Amino acid sequence: MEEWFFTNMNTRRLNRIFRPDGRALIVAMDHGLIDGPCAGLENPADTINKIVSGGADAVLTSYGLARRFARELAPIGLILRSDGSNTKIGNKDAPTPVFFGVEEALRLGADALVVSAYPGSSKEVESLSNLALVAGEAHAWGLAMLAEMVPGGFDSAPEYRTVENIALSARLGAELGADFIKTPYVAGFESVTQRCFAPVVILGGAKRGKEADMLAEIKQAVQSGAAGVAIGRNIFQAEDPRLMTAAVAAILHDDATVEDALKILGGSLKP
What we know:
With 271 residues, this protein is an alpha/beta fold. It is 41% helix and 14% strand.
């Protein structure tokens, strides 16, 4: 297993996200910026407590949620969403501005900022410019930078999600200064991780029908060199977010099999 060693000035902050084994279980909870009070996030404090108890390493979330629930988020790493997008009822062709930056992140005690970029889409140049701008400012103050690289955008056709496009996108994020990358998983993912000089975590996407499928994908991603996950709905919309977090953590940090992880979902944890 490859371990990532961070040697620049944001080492302390990255080590609040990645464990000593070089892997990270990040729970994405920024969906309210697009979907509002979606299922699983109606009561953020309750959900945060469950995923912290289950073994999450960090949360990726919005400025408002991070500010309001600072106490609940204190035990784990914090990644602040920097850029914005249209809501689910908004104009899909709207610009993607930067809403929050270094000053807000430092006030919140965040460890990293995240910006999404969409190579191959009509928003390619704008989103890449946002990433480069925020990365430079973040590093000037010792903050880490996460690049969410999605070729073609989140609504892109399947032909955009090729292993070559994802490998290009991940490497582009690293070239623009990201300390770690979030991107979709595809078959042949070792071609992505082997050609990117920053750790790569996989995103979760839409809620799955079968928990076993998601856990199997995570196992395959790790075996292909992924440094972890940044998953939202498949954790906070699970029947028991605490147990789902624990199941994913077992795969990432204990090298558990999918079968062992499924046993965690069907069992219980000590309080």
